Amino acid sequence: MVKWFGTCTDIQEQKQIEQLLLTKNEELKKINEDLDQFVYTASHDLKLPIINMASIFDELKQSATYQDPEADQLIALFQKALQQIYGTINDLSEIGKFQKNVYNTIEPVHLPTLTDEVKASIQELIATSAAQITTDFSQVPYLPFSKVNLKSIIYNLLSNAIKYQVPGRPPVILLKSYVYSPDYLALSITDNGLGIDLDKHQKKLFQMYKRLHNHVPGSGLGLYIIHRIMTNNKGLIEVESTVNKGTTFRLLFPHNPTISA
């Protein structure tokens, strides 16, 4: 009887611990959802006042006269501050939209079609950089994933591959999908750009607002968003890079044979 009582007590304690963990997980999930909603709502509500402020300031510049000899410099500083505020609000808005889309329905996404949509959205960037983009989706034309999130991934990867080109060298980019292993499907993008010093930057590569090349305009959110999407969907990211030669990002998606075209 003593042995039986002890065993039951252990099982009861284990169940209590499991129930406590479930409760805490639900609480954390609710807190995260509330925080995401706050970020999204706050960024949306702040946009209009900033736009109005910029419009009023533009009107003042055209109609007002300034006696201070440093007026032009002060005006330039104010404009820069407005742009920074607006940029931060846009960043928060993008994060909020991304968080709301993290758990979108998984479906077979046609990679050639989705990539064409992304290329159309950055057509001007492709044209001005003279980028050559090649795709090979012959092995895996359909990728089971959230279409919204996959489009965000391809958009950020392609945009970065073009923006971080070596000056005077047109970007050459290969986007490819294939079976990586029995458990994973791969989507890789290889470029001939500036490259990344992984010894120096690897630990901070996917941090929010982390920028590796400050001479290129950007918010530093692209890789952060990609990393969050992949992590939340049990995916992996591999990076290979050589400075001044190029970079390969290899994204590994859990393979679910039950979801097919």
Automatic annotation (TrEMBL):
It is an enzyme of class 2 (transferase). The keyword Signal does not apply. Residues 41-257 form the Histidine kinase domain. It comes from the Bacteria. Its EC number is 2.7.13.3. It holds the Pfam family HATPase_c. Keywords: Kinase, Phosphoprotein, Transferase. SUPFAM superfamilies: ATPase domain of HSP90 chaperone/DNA topoisomerase II/histidine kinase, Homodimeric domain of signal transducing histidine kinase. GO terms for molecular function: phosphorelay sensor kinase activity. It catalyses: ATP + protein L-histidine = ADP + protein N-phospho-L-histidine. CDD domains: HisKA (cd00082). The keyword Ribonucleoprotein does not apply. This is histidine kinase. It comes from uncultured Adhaeribacter sp.
